[in-house]
Design brief:
This is Cytochrome P450. It comes from Adineta ricciae (Rotifer). Keywords: Membrane, Transmembrane, Transmembrane helix. The chain crosses the membrane at residues 30-55. One of its GO terms (molecular function) is heme binding. By secondary structure, the chain is an alpha+beta fold. The chain has two domains: 1-78 and 281-326, no CATH class; 106-277 and 339-419, Cytochrome p450, CATH 1.10.630. It is 53% helix and 7% strand. It has helices at residues 2-42, 47-55, 73-77, 108-125, 143-159, 165-182, 191-207, 218-222, 225-264, 266-276, 298-303, 338-353, 397-414; strands at residues 61-63, 68-70, 138-141, 282-285, 294-297, 358-362, 377-382. The strands form two sheets. A four-stranded mixed β-sheet has the order 1-2-5-4. A hairpin with an 8-residue loop joins strand 4 and strand 5. The longest helix has 41 residues, at 2-42. The structure holds protoporphyrin IX containing FE. Residues 85-86, 90, 92-93, 100-101, 115, 235-236, 239-240, 243-244, 247, 274, 279-280, 283, 327-329, 333, 335-337, 340-341, 345 line the site of protoporphyrin IX containing FE. Protoporphyrin IX containing FE is lined by residues 85-86, 90, 92-93, 100-101, 115, 235-236, 239-240, 243-244, 247, 274, 279-280, 283, 327-329, 333, 335-337, 340-341, 345.
């Protein structure tokens, strides 16, 4: 009799323990989710930076209400492998690669093969093609100057010749429109401009010049028209232009303070730039393999576990043991164009800074951030630096900050960030 009631007692104790654990986990998830959403909503920081500020060097997972937050690269790389290619929940490349490798679309394997084909040829072409990478002397926003130079170069990489004025005038506004949406300088696409971009690329594909990237690629011509255009226009022209512009601008800003590091240990300086300014903010995966869905912040992954994580220090890459650089991705979705992107960005960056007498001075009221809410405000010059170069400030900062705040929130909503 006594033994039965004691086993009942143990059973009830276990039950209550489990119940109170569940209640505790639910309360904690609710609390963390609330803190994260509220902070991401009210501050000017991107959600990825907010995550780093709130959870810092914490290890493992934080249980949020609808998914887990993965806090460090070790936990991330130990997760069961996800074999799904890019899907609509991958926000890194949206909205400018809307059709690339979507898992709902059967053509993703063809697209991937075509991408590898083009990738290999472009890697060979980089360096064989000469281009002018001299920035104009001026104080102001240099983001669009770099963007325009790289957009011409990306055309050359794909077609092995510079664009004619007519071609460029029909393609460039489309590229600009896409990047302005990505950067949230505007919120709706200009359909007419996009249509011109599409039509011009289609015309070039149909010309099928012997130097066209996919001239001898049968798989490319087996794809439907929309995929052919998207491969050229989005996967190559747009991605090279948008991603490499951001990387080059980040390097130029860092170079203004650490020129010697870029001269003496370029690879470390590039890694360190990408560690502090990864081009992606968040990664998300839907539930798979019995796992809860998860979210992770690249800003946190790249700083968690490093000494003085917010400081720029090339020497840290010489240490025998250190956390990995996560900026190129980590699983099946790891960037397939790392070599291409590194080589293009390195070539453009070095050609800019190696111009005789080049100097750069960021505006006195400019903060270097991962995104470019105010553009890339810097004074570019050659030869002797004017005495007032350090005092120059750009205008309309408050207006830009407000626009950025609004656009970041729209971005959180329309890209399902944090949901
Ligand atoms: C310039 C620096 C670049 C960085 C830092 C970068 C980084 C990344 C990252 C982090 C991912 C993974 C996204 C995720 O897991 O959600 C990714 C994927 C991808 N990147 Fe890049 N990228 C860069 C440039 C480029 C360029 C120039 C191209 C094209 C020529 C490119 C093509 C792609 C593609 C196609 C994927 C999707 C891969 C897949 O899911 O199979 N990237 N990139």
């Amino acid at each position: 009799m006594l033994s039965i009631s004691s086993s009942h007692f143990e059973k009830y104790t276990m039950y209550f323990k489990k119940l109170s654990m569940n209640v505790l986990v639910s309360v904690q998830s609710f609390y963390y989710t609330l803190v994260l959403y509220l902070s991401a909503f009210v501050t000017l920081m991107t959600p990825g930076t907010v995550i780093w500020k709130i959870f810092g060097n914490r290890k493992g997972k934080v249980h949020l209400m609808s998914r887990d937050l993965i806090c460090d690269s070790e936990t991330l790389t130990k997760l069961p492998k996800c074999s799904k290619p890019l899907d609509q929940f991958t926000n890194a490349l949206c909205p400018f690669l809307p059709t690339f490798l979507l898992d709902s679309d059967n053509s993703w394997k063809q697209r991937r093969n075509v991408f590898s084909f083009g990738n290999d040829i472009i890697i060979e072409r980089i360096g064989q093609i000469s281009a002018d990478f001299r920035l104009t002397s001026k104080p102001g926003n240099i983001l669009w100057d770099v963007f325009e130079m790289i957009s011409r170069y990306s055309f050359q990489l794909v077609f092995n010749r510079p664009p004619t004025n007519e071609e460029f005038n029909r393609i460039y506004p489309g590229l600009l429109d896409i990047n302005r949406i990505i950067k949230r300088f505007t919120s709706t696409p200009d359909v007419k401009i996009r249509q011109n971009f599409y039509d011009e690329v289609l015309k070039l594909i149909q010309d099928n010049d012997k130097d066209f990237l996919f001239h001898s690629c049968e798989t490319f011509f087996q794809m439907e028209e929309i995929h052919q255009v998207s491969s050229v226009a989005e996967d190559f022209l747009t991605t090279i232009t948008v991603q490499c512009t951001d990387l080059v601008c980040h390097m130029l800003l860092v170079y203004s303070e650490h020129a010697d590091d870029f001269q003496n240990q370029f690879d470390n300086a590039l890694n360190e730039t990408l560690r502090l300014y990864p081009l992606t903010d968040l990664w998300m995966r839907q539930p798979y393999g019995g796992q809860r869905g998860w979210i992770t912040s690249l800003v946190q992954l790249n700083r968690n576990g490093w000494a003085q994580p917010d400081a720029f220090s090339c020497e840290r890459w010489n240490l025998p043991k250190h956390p990995p650089l996560m900026s190129w991705g980590f699983d099946i979705r790891r960037c397939p164009a790392q070599k291409l992107a590194t080589n293009v960005s390195k070539l453009v960056f070095q050609a800019i800074v190696n111009q005789e007498g080049f100097w750069i001075e960021p505006a006195a009221n400019f903060q270097h951030e991962r995104t470019f809410p105010y553009g890339c405000q810097a004074w570019i010059g050659y030869g002797e630096k004017p005495k007032n170069a350090r005092q120059w400030k750009f205008e309309n900062k408050l207006r830009m900050q407000l626009r950025r705040w609004l656009c970041e929130k729209l971005r959180m909503i329309d890209q399902n960030e944090l949901n």
